[in-house]
Backbone:
C-alpha cells in the first residue's frame, strides 16, 4: 500500500509540474501577444486613400499629386490605391477647407503648395497650416518667368526694357493672388518700377493655354508645368526665382542677379486632417519616405529640375512656421 501511496504522490507531482510548464508557455505567448495586438490594432489602410489637389488638372500641383500616387502604385508600396481628386477654386481655399473639415479621417489627404501658406496670410482662407496634421515634405519646385517665343523679348533684361518703353501693355499670368507667382510678380513690378498687370488663373493648365494663345505676355510657371513647351521652343524661360541658378538651366539668371530682391521656391508636401492616430501618421510618413527612395521619384525630380527635400511629419510640422514667415515677409510686395 505504501508503494501505491508513494506512486500516487509522484503522479500528482508530475501532473502539477506539467501544469506549471503549460502555464509558463502560456505566459511566454502572453508576453508576445501585446506586441502582436499593437501591430494589428490599426488595420490601415483598408480602403482607397483620397489625395486632394486644391487646383486644376494639368498644373504642377496636379502633376506632383499624380506622380506621388503613381510611384506608390508602381512599386506596390501600399495595399490600397491612392486616388487623386482635384478640388479647385479660391486659390486653394476650397480644397484645403474641405480636407481640414474631415477631422480624424486618415483616408483624406491633401498636397501642399504656395497657397497653403500665402492665402491664409492674406486673410482669404478660414484655415492655415495650423489646422492640419503634417505628414511629409517631399521636394521644392523652382519657379520660372517664361514668355511666348513669339514675343518681342528673349531675355529678362529685354522684358524689363520693353515694359518700361510700353507701360501698361504687358500682362502676366499665375495661379494665385498670393503665391510665389504673385509675390514674384509684384516684387519685379515694384523693384523695377514698371507698369504691368497680373491675371490669376485657377490652375497652371489655364495659364499655359493663355500664354500659348497670346492672351497674356509672360507667365510664372514651374519647370514641370512648362517643360513640354520649353522643350518645343514655344516658351522661353527668362529668369528663375531661386537663390541660385537651376542645374539644368545654367544660363538662366536668377531674379537676384537681375536686380530683383526675391528668392522663393515652392514647397510640395502632404498633410492630413487633425485628429488622425499616431499609427496612421507613422504609416503615412513611412509610405511617402519609401516613395522618395524609388528610381521613379528620383527621375521625376531630375526631369522637372526639382529640389530633393524630404522632411518627416515632425520635421515638416516644425518647418511650416518658418515657411509661413517667409511668405509673410514677401506679402509686403502685393498691392
Residues:
Amino acid at each position: 500500500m505504501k508503494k501505491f501511496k508513494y506512486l500516487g504522490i509522484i503522479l500528482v507531482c508530475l501532473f502539477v509540474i506539467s501544469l506549471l510548464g503549460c502555464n509558463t508557455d502560456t505566459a511566454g505567448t502572453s508576453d508576445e501577444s501585446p506586441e502582436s495586438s499593437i501591430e494589428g490594432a490599426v488595420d490601415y489602410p483598408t480602403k482607397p486613400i483620397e489625395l486632394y489637389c486644391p487646383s486644376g488638372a494639368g498644373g504642377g500641383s496636379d502633376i506632383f499629386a499624380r506622380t506621388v500616387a503613381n510611384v506608390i502604385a508602381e512599386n506596390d508600396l501600399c495595399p490600397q490605391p491612392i486616388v487623386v481628386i482635384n478640388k479647385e477654386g479660391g486659390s486653394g481655399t476650397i480644397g484645403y477647407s474641405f480636407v481640414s473639415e474631415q477631422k480624424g479621417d486618415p483616408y483624406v489627404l491633401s498636397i501642399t503648395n504656395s497657397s497653403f501658406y500665402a492665402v491664409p496670410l492674406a486673410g482669404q482662407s478660414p484655415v492655415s497650416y495650423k489646422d492640419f496634421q503634417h505628414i511629409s515634405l517631399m521636394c521644392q519646385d523652382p519657379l520660372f518667368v517664361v514668355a511666348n517665343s513669339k514675343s518681342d523679348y528673349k531675355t529678362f533684361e529685354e522684358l524689363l526694357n520693353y515694359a518700361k518703353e510700353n507701360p501698361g501693355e504687358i500682362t502676366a499670368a499665375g495661379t494665385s493672388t498670393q503665391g510665389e507667382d504673385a509675390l514674384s510678380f509684384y516684387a519685379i513690378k515694384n523693384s523695377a518700377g514698371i507698369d504691368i498687370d497680373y491675371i490669376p488663373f485657377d490652375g497652371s493648365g489655364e495659364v499655359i493655354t493663355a500664354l500659348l494663345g497670346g492672351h497674356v505676355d509672360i507667365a510664372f510657371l514651374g519647370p514641370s508645368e512648362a517643360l513640354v513647351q520649353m522643350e518645343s521652343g514655344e516658351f522661353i524661360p527668362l529668369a528663375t526665382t531661386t537663390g541660385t541658378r537651376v542645374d539644368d538651366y545654367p544660363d538662366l539668371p536668377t531674379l537676384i542677379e537681375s536686380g530683383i530682391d526675391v528668392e522663393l521656391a515652392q514647397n510640395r508636401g502632404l498633410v492630413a486632417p487633425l485628429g488622425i492616430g499616431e499609427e496612421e501618421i507613422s504609416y503615412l510618413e513611412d509610405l511617402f519616405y519609401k516613395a522618395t527612395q524609388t528610381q521613379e521619384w528620383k527621375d521625376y525630380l531630375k526631369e522637372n529640375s526639382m529640389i530633393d527635400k524630404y522632411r518627416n511629419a515632425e520635421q515638416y510640422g516644425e518647418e511650416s512656421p518658418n515657411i509661413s514667415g517667409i511668405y509673410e515677409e514677401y506679402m509686403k510686395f502685393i498691392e
